[in-house]
Write a structure and sequence with these properties.
Residues 561-580 have a biased composition (Basic and acidic residues). The chain is an alpha+beta fold and 592 residues long. 40% of the residues lie in helices and 10% in strands. The structure holds S-adenosylmethionine.
């Protein structure tokens, strides 16, 4: 059960209205734990999420409510009895507030079917009917607010299919079309190809105020645990706090400044001298994914499979022969940590062989599938899975994600977590069902916010490999220690990823071509882009994985303008950006 007092969050402004909504959210979450198949509670919580400005979480709850309506309506469905029983309780109690909405309550007698012989709808059917319209309203407006226009329109049309004159749904359809015209740059009289509507949006990327799983990565306990685990993979390294430049979104005129603002994050440091060419880290991970059906990679480590012949070492699972491992070691690791949770359930099939433009998303959802399998088989919460618990999520403080409704409000916040109905809500629930997990009874583990948090962690840290056949990304992995190494355009290591992720100390440095090697105490400096490129291209390439414009010494030196041509510092930009880094991930060191 979630703790009722929010922790692990940077949200500390005491806004009574917000506090009240957060308390109500907790009450409803506890209610769902007691009565997991209650679709009215899901709708109630969706409304609270909308009021708290989490449209993605509202859509997640409205979709679960819609699935429960299907359960109520179809006797052959697995949770029919439970969903019906929960709804019956509302049918005999006072009419649910969440359905006293706009024209809804008046429309209850206009049911298309399900009327009883005396012409009056059975109360439970009437509730299910009204609830379905409410689900379509919440789903369509929420998905519109997330930027998922195609899915928003789909749900809106489904609602209008039941109640063509419903004013709220008609209004929402108008908003969707208006936003679509803006995004696709179409005038009012041009036809709109509804199939081409954008469906990928962005939502808040934050440590939710109620998330009690996020560790304090800077605490002695976290660092000592991480260092204990790191000892085998990188015996000459340690995880420590690193002071990194605060990144801006784009080009800056501050390259010549001697001191720039920094923030505290984690990094890897050498604890002993490391020779040029020496291995620095060799990391094994089970958090891997491959999106091709017939691919010759190991299901566990994602390394190439050896040729399948006697004594090659490759092994397949005796219970689902399609799953192949490159060695007995990988087979044993998979059996111990995740495979029985997905064995013979065809779970991965939902995201295999995607369209070229969906390759990235399919890899992310398959990484999520692996986290779900690790969590289910080890019987731990997904956010406690060791492969993701301590990794960087690029979270932004809750308060800077909030929407300011005051008259003098500035521009709306820039939300940064990619989101879509398909990959963030529908597919994860489908994966869980394939794993034979009751998605209602396990809400605490598989709630939409939990999935969003896991996604936030992969998105900043996963590595992908492209197929040599068609250049599409088809293998991905998260190496929780490798991804602690920060970037520098004069790196002291280089990396190679096969079955394991390996970091080597460079023989020669890029800047000055001096001898490589790393001295005890120095930070391990990885590279997130091709460091042989000119500065502008390096910065553009690195900005995706880095999350901003590279401000390393080399970039600043190469891009710096002569003294007589310098402009004033745009410190306001930094302060704005620094605010996000400060409370999201450690204390702010401020401008020097
Ligand atoms: C893969 S993580 C690296 C580990 C991370 N520092 C941590 O605390 O876990 C990537 C993030 O680290 C930060 N980072 C890495 N290299 C950096 C650099 N040279 N300058 C500024 N920030 C950097 C950025 O915030 C980036 O999004």
């Amino acid at each position: 059960m979630e703790a009722s007092s929010p922790s692990g969050s940077s949200f500390d402004d005491r806004d009574p209205h917000r506090e009240h909504l957060l308390a109500r959210r907790q009450e409803l979450t506890d209610g769902l734990e007691r009565s997991p198949y209650d679709l009215i509670l899901y709708l109630d919580r969706a409304v609270v999420y909308s009021n708290l400005a989490y449209p993605d979480l509202a859509a997640g709850d409205a979709y679960r409510a819609l699935l429960l309506i299907d359960e109520v309506s179809d006797e052959s469905f697995e949770y029919h009895e439970q969903a019906l029983e929960a709804l019956n309780e509302h049918a005999v109690a006072s009419f649910p507030d969440v359905l006293q909405h706009g024209e809804l309550a008046d429309g209850g007698t206009n049911m298309a079917d399900g009327d009883s012989p005396d012409g009056r709808a059975e109360p439970v059917k009437q509730l299910a009917y009204l609830a379905s319209i409410r689900c379509y309203q919440i789903l369509s407006i929420s998905l519109l607010l997330c930027g998922c226009l195609k899915s928003a329109l789909n749900f809106c049309d489904r609602g209008l299919g039941i109640v063509p004159d419903n004013k709220e749904l008609r209004d929402i359809k108008g908003y969707i079309e208006r936003v679509a015209r803006q995004k696709l740059r179409k005038s009012d009289d041009e036809p709109l190809d509804l199939l081409s509507l954008p469906d990928r949006g962005v939502v808040r990327r934050e440590i939710y105020p109620w998330n009690t799983h996020e560790p304090d990565r800077f605490s002695d306990a976290s660092l000592s645990l991480l260092n204990k685990r790191l000892a085998t993979a990188a015996p000459k390294c340690a995880v420590r706090v690193s002071h990194l430049p605060v990144l801006l979104d784009g080009a800056t005129n501050t390259d010549n400044y001697n001191n720039i603002p920094t923030c505290s994050q984690l990094g890897l440091f050498a604890t002993q001298d490391i020779e040029p060419g020496e291995s620095v880290l060799s990391e094994y991970t089970l958090l891997t994914a491959n999106n091709r059906h017939k691919e010759s990679t190991c299901d566990a480590c994602s390394g190439e499979l050896p040729p399948l012949q006697d004594n090659s070492g490759a092994m397949s699972c005796p219970d689902c022969c399609d799953t192949v491992f490159c060695s007995e070691f990988c087979f044993d690791q998979a059996q111990a940590k995740y495979h029985p949770g997905v064995c013979d359930r065809d779970v991965d099939a939902v995201a295999k062989d995607p369209d070229a433009k969906e390759s990235d998303e399919s890899l992310y959802v398959l990484l999520l599938a692996r986290v779900l399998a690790l969590s289910a088989h080890q019987d731990i919460h997904p956010l406690e899975v060791e492969e993701i618990k301590y990794i960087w999520g690029d979270f932004v403080p809750t308060r800077s994600n909030d929407i300011d409704l005051s008259v003098n409000a500035g521009p709306p916040p820039d939300w940064t977590l990619p989101f879509s109905f398909k990959y963030s809500i529908e597919m994860p629930l489908h994966l869980l069902e394939k794993m034979d997990i009751d998605i209602y009874a396990t809400l605490d583990r598989y709630d939409t916010w939990v999935l969003n948090t896991a996604y936030a962690k992969f998105r900043g840290t996963a590595s992908a490999r492209k197929s040599t056949r068609d250049g599409r990304p088809d293998v991905a992995a998260v190496h929780p220690f490798w991804c602690l190494a920060n970037h520098d355009c004069d790196p002291n290591v280089t990396w190679e990823w096969g079955g394991r992720m390996v970091l080597w100390a460079r023989e020669t440095r890029v800047v000055g071509h001096g001898r490589g090697g790393i001295k005890a105490g120095e930070e391990i400096l990885n590279h997130y882009c091709d460091v042989d490129l000119p500065v502008q291209q390096r910065r553009e390439w690195a900005s995706g994985s880095l999350g901003g414009w590279c401000m390393c010494q080399r970039c600043r030196q190469e891009a710096g303008t002569p003294k007589d041509k310098r402009d004033d510092v745009e410190m306001a930009d930094w302060v704005k950006k620094a605010d996000g880094v400060d409370s999201a991930d450690g204390q702010m060191d401020g401008a020097h």
